[in-house]
Amino acid sequence: MKELTLQIKYAEYPELAMVAMQDRLLIEKAREAASNGYAPYSGFQVGAAVLLENGIIITGNNQENAAYPSGLCAERTAIFYAASQYPAIPIRAIAVSALKTQSGDFVKPCGACRQVIAEYEDLAKSPIRIILDGPSTIVILDSIDALLPLRFKKEDLRLG
Questions:
Q1: How far is CA 127 from CA 31, 69, 142, in A?
Q2: Per-residue pLDDT of the chain (160 residues; tens, 9 = 90+)
Q3: Could you give all domains of the chain from N- to C-terminal order, each with its CATH number?
Q4: Contact 45, 98 (CB under 8 A)
Q5: Is the entire prediction scored with pTM above 0.90?
Q6: Is 11:142 a contact under the CB 8 Å cutoff?
Q7: Active-site residue 75, yes or no?
Q8: Which of 26, 57, 106, 142 lies most in the core, judged by the most C-beta atoms within 10 Å?
Q9: How far is CA 131 from the centre of its chain?
């Protein structure tokens, strides 16, 4: 048996004022988007802001549905809109914010959103910076690999 330990590297900031201006703008846009999230069942309003390589910022928020699987997270709403409107423009960064979290901690993308971020990172052949916003902490990661180190990749689909 071989036992390995995985570690992640990220930057943690205790307040918005300490974050670089471009990241701060993305966080503010994600917070604004969260305020428009449709979350009548969970009350968990989430917003995302995606920065494209050309400087355009696309926002999205979570959209719940009484049939829970029919809803969509903020991250995927923003990413899918960006990809549909600007299909050839790579995503450089995404900020995710929630109006409130149960733990009071920074918001974290679900597994499906992590896999979607990974797909678009692979498509662009370039890392996507991930900015996770919380009431007392902002975390910045250089790539989806920090959140999804043993992820499923398109190469895993190839047989033989």
A1: 23, 29, 7
A2: 999 898 999 999 999 999 999 999 999 999 999 999 999 999 999 999 999 999 999 999 999 999 988 999 999 999 999 999 999 999 999 999 998 776 778 999 999 999 999 999 999 999 999 999 988 899 999 999 999 988 888 788 876 5
A3: 16-147 (3.40.140.10)
A4: yes
A5: yes
A6: no
A7: yes
A8: 26
A9: 7
